[in-house]
Write a sequence for this structure.
């Protein structure tokens, strides 16, 4: 299991607190615009499609494919255990999400490979939305 | 911008670019502001526009139009926070509209503020920082996506990096001048930073400043050097760099860039130098595709040969971000190199360079033969792009 201790942990804001609360329960939620249904990521005050304010935090599938990735050998800060896989996941619902792949043997890494949200607990409050490779 | 010859770059300056200079940002920036105005032959009292990401003087409280005017001791008409091509385009628009007459575009940065990795590219943002994201990793993600989508190879990227490193090896002003020259083989075997990018495929981090002076054709008549005309260009920002997931979405802005050439009445084939932005080795590939010099996916095959000093569109002629200078704000250098090439003020290893005599022997010479129409890129990240089209008479 990838260690996720000793790294700078997210500080939830008023805007993002519901996201982290859901993550803490193992659910991946995105803002979905009440007017046009557009999913957005990262959290934004207004819809990035129609600039409407009302939205609903909506659970998403947590599935997607690997848009791209890199194996990092030179970490920005001490505390990151190298090497690690930094990845961009294209969610089924559309948005691209910057994340970490866990349990990702190098020989199985491939662009466009199917992935799903894994969640890696970092503290009592923070459950990180990591991803892992799936078979299907 | 419509291709007219009414706006000109009339002054440029760059301090020595170096690692750990021990100098302050404000001292380097003032050297460049004075140097560029002296180069133009315009006194500071005529400056009524200031465009820069930073204002390190005044009351020390940062960028503010009031603080800038207070420090200058005279009215300032136009201020904006950007750099490079975008700043030149904004300066030109303001001057053409009659709301400013002489705009300076200073930039300065120091390694001491960043450590050995630019801090602004790893914001303490709750959805970025925990992932261990940082610049080389973000661009490695884009490089791999380009390789997957289009069959671009790591060897092609290494050739692009080798062009920058070679040019720096014959530019005594380059940070990496005098150091071991990074050949394709060394680049491929370099220390892996973020797979597939090795260290010689990544930008430098160093100290230095630069400044550009932009004015009207009328004011340019009395300047010390022939004007370099700003025919046009384009600028766009489509996202929040380093906060969001890096991707190749820049390619989606391609038509906007191509329109910039059309509005200036310039055909891509007529362009000589293209000072694109080699932040990482794959950068020029994506930029050549986005600017419309080749189709998306063709850059890997096209760019390595095109950017050599004798190629169709020479680039990174000073050594680029990889080996000349990355002082955190290196965008002005892409404009300055074009100006230096036009003026025949290209310092290299040719014995007669001071007199403008070049050998065109590519082992010692980085001067392009008679360039007349050029492109200078930047600011440029995963989520923003700008370029100017620069011409000489």
């Amino acid at each position: 299991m990838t260690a996720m201790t000793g790294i700078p942990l997210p500080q939830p804001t008023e805007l993002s607190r519901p996201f982290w609360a859901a993550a803490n329960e193992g659910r991946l939620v995105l803002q979905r615009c009440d007017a046009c249904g557009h999913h957005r990521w990262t959290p934004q005050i207004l819809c990035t499609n129609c600039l409407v304010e009302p939205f609903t935090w909506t659970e998403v599938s947590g599935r997607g494919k690997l848009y791209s990735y890199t194996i990092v050998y030179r970490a920005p800060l001490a505390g990151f255990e190298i090497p690690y896989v930094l990845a961009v996941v294209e969610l089924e619902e559309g948005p691209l999400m910057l994340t970490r792949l866990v349990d990702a043997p190098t020989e199985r890494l491939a662009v466009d490979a199917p992935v799903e949200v894994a969640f890696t607990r970092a503290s009592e409050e923070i459950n990180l939305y990591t991803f892992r490779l799936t078979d299907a | 911008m419509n291709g007219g010859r009414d706006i000109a770059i009339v002054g440029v300056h760059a301090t020595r670019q170096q690692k750990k200079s021990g100098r302050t940002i404000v001292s380097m920036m003032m050297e460049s502001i004075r140097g560029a105005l002296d180069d133009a032959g315009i006194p500071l009292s005529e400056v009524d526009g200031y465009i820069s990401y930073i204002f390190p003087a005044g009351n020390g409280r940062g960028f503010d139009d009031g603080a800038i005017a207070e420090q200058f001791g005279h009215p300032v008409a136009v201020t904006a926070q950007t750099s490079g091509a975008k700043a030149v385009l904004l300066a030109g628009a303001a001057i053409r509209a009659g709301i400013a007459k002489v705009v300076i575009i200073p930039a300065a940065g120091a390694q001491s503020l960043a450590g050995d990795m630019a801090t602004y590219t790893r914001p303490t943002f709750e959805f970025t920082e925990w992932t261990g994201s940082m610049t080389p990793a973000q661009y490695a993600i884009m490089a791999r996506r380009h390789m997957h989508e289009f069959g671009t190879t790591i060897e092609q990227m290494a050739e692009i990096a080798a062009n920058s490193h070679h040019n720096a090896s014959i530019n005594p002003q380059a940070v990496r001048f005098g150091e071991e020259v990074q050949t394709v083989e060394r680049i491929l075997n370099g220390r892996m930073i973020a797979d597939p990018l090795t260290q010689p495929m990544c930008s430098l981090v160093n100290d230095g400043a630069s400044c550009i002076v932009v004015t009207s054709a009328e004011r340019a008549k009395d300047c010390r050097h022939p004007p370099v005309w700003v025919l046009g260009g384009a600028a766009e920002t489509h996202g929040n760099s380093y906060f969001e997931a890096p991707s190749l979405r820049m390619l989606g802005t391609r038509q906007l860039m191509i329109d910039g050439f059309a509005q200036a009445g310039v055909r891509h084939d007529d362009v000589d130098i293209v000072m694109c932005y080699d932040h990482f080795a794959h950068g020029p590939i994506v930029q050549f595709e986005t600017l419309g010099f080749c189709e998306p996916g063709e850059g890997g095959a096209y760019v390595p040969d095109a950017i050599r000093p004798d190629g169709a569109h020479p680039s990174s002629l000073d050594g680029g971000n990889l080996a000349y200078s990355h002082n955190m704000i290196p965008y002005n250098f892409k404009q300055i190199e074009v100006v230096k090439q036009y003026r025949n003020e290209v310092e290299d290893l040719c014995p007669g360079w001071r007199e403008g005599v070049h050998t065109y022997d590519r082992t010692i010479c980085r001067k392009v033969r008679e360039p007349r129409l050029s492109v200078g890129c930047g600011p440029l990240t995963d989520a923003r792009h700008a370029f100017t089209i620069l011409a000489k008479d």
Observations:
- DSSP finds twelve helices and eleven strands in chain B.
- Residues 25-40 of chain B form the longest helix (16 residues).
- The domain at 7-113+205-391 of chain B is CATH 3.40.47.10 (Peroxisomal Thiolase; Chain A, domain 1).
- The interface with chain A takes residues 117, 122, 124, 126-134, 136-137, 140-142, 144-145, 148, 191-197, 243-247 of chain B (CB under 8 Å).
